[in-house]
Amino acid sequence: MRTGIWPSVSEASPRARAPADLRANASAAAAAVLFGASVVAVRVAVYVNLNPVVAALLGVVLLGERRSGLFLLGFAAVVARVLLVNWPGRRT
């Protein structure tokens, strides 16, 4: 009588099942770590939008480049968006 999803594994001896059990446990552990890390990576990913702004500001400070009013408007928009995304919401 065959039982389980993988009959060849469930019918095997305990010694033969050990590598399959190890792979299953390792896969479950990897999935848990990746899922847990995805929450952190999503929060931090918003700050990637600040890279061009920081580069432009460093150009002004270090290289003496000039920036227009349109740059300042774009800078304010990017900073406002990052703050809006990360602003703590109301808890109900």
Order of helices and strands: HHHH
Summarize the amount of helix as a percent range. over 70%
Query: Main beta sheet, described?
Result: none
Rg from C-alpha positions? 26 Å
Strand content: under 5%
Q: What separation lies between the terminal Cα atoms?
A: 53 Å
Whole-number tally of structural domains: 1
Average pLDDT level:
76
Tally of helical segments: 4
The helix/strand class is mainly alpha
Low-confidence stretches: none
What would the principal axes of the Cα set say about the shape? Answer: elongated
By DSSP, the count of extended strands is 0
Q: What features would you describe in this structure?
A:
The chain has about 90 residues and is mainly alpha-helical. It has one domain (about 5-85). The protein contains 4 helices and no strands. The longest helix has about 30 residues, at about 15-45. The protein is elongated. The model has no long low-confidence stretch (mean pLDDT about 75).
